[in-house]
Design brief:
The chain has about 475 residues and is an alpha/beta fold. Helix content is about 45%, strand content about 15%. A seven-stranded mixed β-sheet has the order 3-4-5-6-2-1-7. Strands 9-10-8-11-12-13 form a six-stranded mixed β-sheet, sandwiched between helices.
Length: about 475
């Protein structure tokens, strides 16, 4: 039996981040049948405070044998089943930092609790029927959310907005299975099965699965973000673009070419999507060994990025160096950023656009938004750049119809399996196989849908999900 399934006994863990000299509050969480006994042995509440569920007590944590004072704290009591795990839960709200919470945790472990495994509190909530798997994964996504939109998507999962349609699809499959099995068991007593009606119902289920699968790419963007590399020749304004975009001075900006020698990163949020922006070293032939390493890293960053911003200097027009860089990155999703437009006349823009490769039109289509004019040093053009990035995201990946629903890879794999099973059912019907054959793949679809919410789940699936949680959650 896996460690993550060792859910007996009372568990304890620090439920907040432990940072030296930072954080005003640290929480030690205890769950299980001995939680109240541990709290009563460690916590002393002065006066006539009542020890009842969903009440916060004020007092002191003391060593039960020596009575040495450990911390002045609050105690939150949540008795079963009205708690996160549906077990008795107590939380010691201590002073933040390192020492207080660690001493309190150690006392809990010495008085009957064991250290919780990663994700074990949420695992117990699942096993006790408090949450389904989609809600549990929503909690993990909420903790790791990198943007407000990602947090909203995670909250939607936590509220059951994904679980409800999945359960409905599974119920519909179970209804079809019941119809088929009734004909197998009581063929002489029931009218013939309506093949067309069965196929029509399966079509509806498959269409809904397809709609849910369409949210996978958007879900990945919300969870992992978009990696954008700014590339170009030296001194075209790449670092100025990063600084203007991030509203900071992350990159050094000078008039000297080759100032940036390494990749500089900045984390942004564009249209609710986390964006990791990489400002790379100027790409050119050089004998400087340090700069040469920076150029090599620029090429690596461009090849690893989801989107490349090829930045050129409007005052220098389209150069041979720009063309060489373009040829190396044109296989990637691409936006041409024409920077320093404050240094050229309005009439020169049209002339400049005509010099940009015709291949760009074939690469991006006729969309003029693939070329953006900026004056990074003057903070101009950033809004247009963000709009262009979002348009490429929406056309290059499947845009979720309902941003509240954004499935993850595990859920997508199960939905794909369910859809394939349903397609096999339809093929079996078309080939006029006996009814017993219909039920085989239909059961496969039901099992795959059940794996998403946890109605059909294996130990290995649970271990894979909850082992990614932090200890204390």
């Amino acid at each position: 039996m896996s460690e993550i399934f060792a859910t007996t006994g009372t568990i304890a863990a620090i439920a907040t981040a432990v940072v030296p000299q930072q954080g005003s509050v640290g929480i030690v969480r205890v769950s299980g049948s001995q939680a109240m006994a541990i709290a009563q042995s460690l916590f002393h509440a002065p006066g006539r405070q009542v020890w009842e569920s969903h009440r916060i007590l004020y007092g002191y944590i003391r060593h039960p044998q020596t009575q040495q004072l450990v911390d002045e704290a609050l105690l939150l009591i949540m008795k079963a089943p009205r708690s996160y795990t549906r077990e008795d839960v107590v939380e010691f709200h201590c002073h933040g930092g390192i020492m207080a919470v660690q001493q309190v945790l150690q006392l809990c472990l010495e008085n009957g609790a064991r250290l919780a495994q990663p994700g074990e509190f949420t695992l117990r909530a699942f096993l006790n029927g408090r949450l389904d798997l989609t809600q549990a994964e929503g909690i993990a996504d909420l903790v790791g959310a990198k943007s407000p939109q990602a947090a909203q998507s995670a909250l939607a999962g936590l509220q059951g907005k994904l679980a409800h349609p999945i359960r409905q699809l599974r119920a519909n499959c179970l209804d079809i299975l019941a119809e088929i099995e009734a004909r197998i068991d009581f063929e002489e007593d029931l009218p013939p099965l309506d093949d067309k009606a069965i196929i029509s119902e399966i079509d509806k289920i498959a269409a809904e699965i397809t709609r849910l699968l369409a949210t996978k790419d958007q879900g990945e963007l919300l969870r992992t973000g978009l990696k954008v590399a700014i590339v170009g020749r030296p001194n075209v304004g790449k670092s100025s673009l990063l600084n203007a975009w991030s509203r900071s001075d992350r990159a050094i900006v000078t008039d000297l070419p080759g100032t940036t020698r390494d990749v500089v990163e900045s984390q942004l949020v564009v249209g609710g999507i986390p964006v990791q922006v990489l400002d790379t070293a100027g790409i050119r032939e050089t004998t400087d060994q340090v700069e040469k390493i920076g150029v090599e890293r620029s090429h690596l960053a461009a090849n690893a990025a989801d989107l490349v911003l090829l930045t050129i200097d409007a005052s220098a027009s389209w150069t041979e160096g720009d063309q060489e860089i373009y040829e190396k990155v044109q296989h990637r999703p691409l936006i041409i950023v024409i920077n320093k437009i404050d240094l050229v006349e309005e009439s020169e823009r049209t002339t400049l656009q005509s010099k940009i490769p015709v291949a760009l039109k074939a690469h991006q289509g006729s969309d003029s938004k693939s070329k953006i004019f900026t004056a990074a040093a003057q903070n101009q053009g950033i809004d247009a750049l963000e709009t262009a990035i979002l348009e490429i995201v929406q056309t290059g990946k499947v845009q979720a119809a309902d941003m509240d629903l954004a499935i993850n890879q595990r859920q997508a794999a199960a939905l794909t399996q369910a859809k394939m099973s349903l397609e096999q059912v339809q093929a079996t019907i078309a080939q006029q196989f006996p009814l017993d054959f219909w039920t085989i793949d239909l059961r496969g679809a039901i099992q795959a849908l059940g794996e998403i919410t946890g109605e059909e789940v294996t130990e290995s699936v649970l271990e894979r999900i909850f082992s990614r949680f932090c200890i204390g959650k």
